[in-house]
Amino acid sequence: MLILVINPGSTSTKVAIFDDDKKLVQRTLRHDVSELEKFNDIMEQEDFRKKEILKFLSEEDYKVEDFSAIACRGGILPPLESGTYRVDESMVDYLKNKTKVKHASNLAAVIGYSLSNGKIPVFITDPVSVDEMIDEARVSGIPEIERLSLVHALNIKAVAREVAEQLGKKYEDLNMVVAHLGGGISVTAHRKGKMIDVNNANDEGPFSPERTGELPVGDVVKLAFSGKYSKKELKKMFVGRGGLVAYLGTNDVKKVLETGTDKEKFYVDAMIYQIAKEIGGMCAVLKGKVDAIVITGGIANNQNVVEKIKSYVFKFAPVFSVPGEFEMEALAKGALRVLKGKEEAKIWGEKNE
Ligand SMILES: Nc1ncnc2c1ncn2[C@@H]1O[C@H](COP(=O)(O)OP(=O)(O)OP(=O)(O)O)[C@@H](O)[C@H]1O
Ligand SMILES: CCCC(=O)O
């Protein structure tokens, strides 16, 4: 069964074609920043990115009708349980007009649904808004603000299952802390297959290559009322131009580690320190009963970084590293489970609002 996988990021769209779970081809369609800057809103990029995907298909000699399904990255929907969902009109409407956070992943289902033209099923799996948090974890400290579960759920769930398999156990029988270290950083506590607490990767937790993570609130208020920044500028300062970008002008950890000065590398060490602190917190969430700590994402490619994190947290549980991300495979597998009748597609509806 042929599956087309679509996964948009802020400056590129990853596309792949799978035959069952065998990847036939994967390409990263890079979009020039100057091209993207012409659009005021992420959703306005729909036609532009759709054309690029159609160009890719034609170059690879496929037509949309050749596919049994389109598997799309799930965007910022209301809180949902983990699983594969059928994309329908109301989901597309939500992602276009109602979503609370603008994120490139919101484009995937919109583009997939439009490409399918009602002829083939379109699915999302484990969207960014997968929410399995326990009630205590939702309380922020003021009633007006509720803590949210917005994380790299797709890769995190796939990697957690992979490590469980390596251990010869079921994911649902284990307690794990999984940290995704990419442009953004998500650290998550899993109790028997449920992600019971997370740092919202846009707002909380460690600083990352391009995000500030948690900040001292008093100083944030001072910045916000300094008159120097618009709301949009402040948001960009926190997500996009924060973290390593703010200190070093780059989000490229690999480059800093390879060619940076000691002073520059110090900021990577500071980031590692914050990651380890967050992992320790998630071990406490699991009351110290942790079967595995898992480090994944692009930064996990660097064994020194993994070792440094390990030096802080090795006493809590065995540490596994699963470098890179497996989002395309996870999306294909999610759609395949439904196509093969192993799982029923969940139906998203306004009731999730
Ligand atoms: N071998 C490596 N050593 C150190 N860092 C690396 C290595 N390979 C990739 N990275 C770093 O990983 C980061 C990007 O990670 P990744 O590709 O997971 O992020 P992304 O997909 O852009 O964002 P996100 O994971 O938040 O969706 C960059 O800072 C990059 O320099
Ligand atoms: C918000 C967490 C997911 C991402 O940054 O891609």
From TrEMBL:
NCBIfam families in the cross-refs: butyr_kinase, PRK03011.1-5
Gene that this sequence comes from: buk
Main location: cytoplasm
InterPro entries noted in UniProt: Aliphatic_acid_kin_short-chain, Aliphatic_acid_kinase_CS, ATPase_NBD, Butyrate_kin
The protein's name in its UniProt record: Probable butyrate kinase
Keyword annotations: ATP-binding, Cytoplasm, Kinase, Nucleotide-binding, Transferase
Catalytic activity: butanoate + ATP = butanoyl phosphate + ADP
GO MF term set: butyrate kinase activity
Protein family membership: Belongs to the acetokinase family.
EC code: 2.7.2.7
Enzyme class: transferase
A Pfam family hit: Acetate_kinase
Cross-referenced CDD domains: ASKHA_NBD_BK (cd24011)
Subcellular location: Cytoplasm
